[in-house]
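ok so for the tutorial part 2 we go from a plain amino acid sequence to predicted structure tokens. step 1 is just haveing the sequence, like this:
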Amino acid sequence: MPDRSSHRALPAHTHPEDVPVETALAALADPVRLQLVRELAAAADWSHSCGSFQVPVGKAALSHHFTVLRAAGLVEQRDRGPKRLNRLRREEFDTRFPGLLGLVLREEG
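step 2 — the prediction. this is what the tokens look like for a chain of 109 residues:
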């Protein structure tokens, strides 16, 4: 019998065109999700696995945050071996909500 423990279904991805502005704003309003988006914005596509982020939450909460970001059309994920890699859907999101990511990614100060 094959070992299925290493096979996970890829999550459903929502295209930014299908996202209401309220969903996008709610996803970006959470400090942990904003930190995830900022880290992804500063990195090359597909260079961050889910476990590589420096956030103050456990694995289950981190999974929830990624679910919210996917549902808001902000993040795309793919599995590579045992890791789930991420990319910020910057171009697609900027087309749907011009300037929004630019505003929220600005450093405070």
